[in-house]
Amino acid sequence: PIFKGRYLKILSMETERQSTIPNALPFNSAGSSSEDSAVKRARLPSSNQDETQNAVDYISQLPDAIIFHIFSFLTTKDTIKTSVLSKQWRSTWTSNQYMSFSLPPGGSQKSKGFIAFVDSVLSRYTAKKLKRFLFDAPCPASMRFSLGWWPQLAVERDVEEVAASLDRWLQFAVEHDVEEVSVTLNNHRHKIYALPQILFSCKTLVSLRISRCCFSVFGTVNWCSLKILRIELAELNDDGMMRVLSGSPVLELLELKRCVGVKHIIVESKSFRELVIDSHEFYGQASMLKISAPHLLKLCLLGKSRGGEFRLDEVSSLIEAELNFEMLDEVKARADLLKGLLERLHNVTKLVMGSWCLQALSLMEARDMFLPSLKCRHLILLGAAGHEGVPEAIAKILESTRLLEKLFLQMTCTPDSEIGLNAEWAGCRVFAGEEFWNFVKWRIYQCLMHLRHVEIVDLSPPECTFAGQNSDQQYQFQIIPSI
């Protein structure tokens, strides 16, 4: 893309220079007159003249496979611009199997021009198959940080302008055996665009990414080749999710980001490998998300959520888990939530825990709650130096991972955290006293003696330190890995 941008800029400058020269003399491909070229050739040594005459056009000699590989990194608009590079490239873009369109902002007039442009591209398409079809309606940079409703309304109006055409374009993609589809909108309302039902019967689809679309499933889903499914900012329900999962027998990765409505994720497929839940939105009766996937290998719970909890029913095959989420309410119940998750994750060999979960661990320590033994061998802790109770949490998790071989600890500073521990309602222990801190350090040191590898990355500024409830007590420890 950098080479392309520079080349097109040079080409544009050259074109402008040509336009300022009188048209009395014919021009060669280099942009200079034939008379000037003849004079220059006369002045050149004979060896240089031979090299000029025998120059090879390497761009025109590139095989189609390499040309299409270059096209795969460009938008369709930029791909068409490459037709000026050589004669061979003038029509090559018409068989480019990688299509990428971005709706420009600017109202009805620009939307109509954009629709005409896409229709023209599709009408000239000559290949039988289509590998990728990407469509997005980005929010303009000038509107991205606007707080009013007018910029958002303008974006939604642009999307409504092309909604009917987008149905036709997706139908075109399905009829050409498309393998990858991405539809990313930037409207506020999830229901402003509903995916056409023909998309749910695309047998060749391998990867699908949907953002801010109405994901309504009414009939049978036939995604027999789908391996990757990413859904963002959508209203879902259990019936539709069941149809999708049962109609995707070879699905390997499912990612749900900021979705609402689904209460159960049940996947029996043996090919299902990874599940990512990011910033799940609990709402109304959907206050709990239950996950059952007996063949799942990796689980990621990420982002910020509110008003619910996660429950793992059947995840016996898990070998890797990432618990880097944060519950913005129900603070008192977070220790029970984390305990329930860890009881189901006792067989994982790699575990990642974020700052919120470390806070929950410190609460379990304060309440003397039992933490199940974990078979984890690789532990990654992402803590916040400004949070209270982090050292106790580290001690507790290390004492429960006796098979641990590798520890990675990354500390950051979040002084204005919303999840600080309050000893008044924790009620079981006041974190103060030099004797207590020495005991915590000793517990951590004893656990580290048998580790093979320990790595600490401290990203916090000097003013952020491990501190207890008494701000005068600072906690520091030194890790000495065993040899």
Automatic annotation (TrEMBL):
Organism: Eucalyptus grandis
Residues covered by region (Disordered): 22-50
Gene3D superfamilies: 1.20.1280.50, Ribonuclease Inhibitor
One matching Pfam family: F-box
Domain of life, per lineage: Eukaryota
SMART domains: FBOX
Listed name of the protein: F-box domain-containing protein
Alphabetized SUPFAM superfamilies for the sequence: F-box domain, RNI-like
PANTHER family linked: RNI-LIKE SUPERFAMILY PROTEIN (PTHR31293:SF12)
InterPro entries: F-box-like_dom_sf (IPR036047), F-box_AtFBL13-like (IPR053781), F-box_dom (IPR001810), FBL60-like (IPR055294), LRR_dom_sf (IPR032675), LRR_FXL15/At3g58940/PEG3-like (IPR055411)
Residue span(s) of domain F-box: 56-101
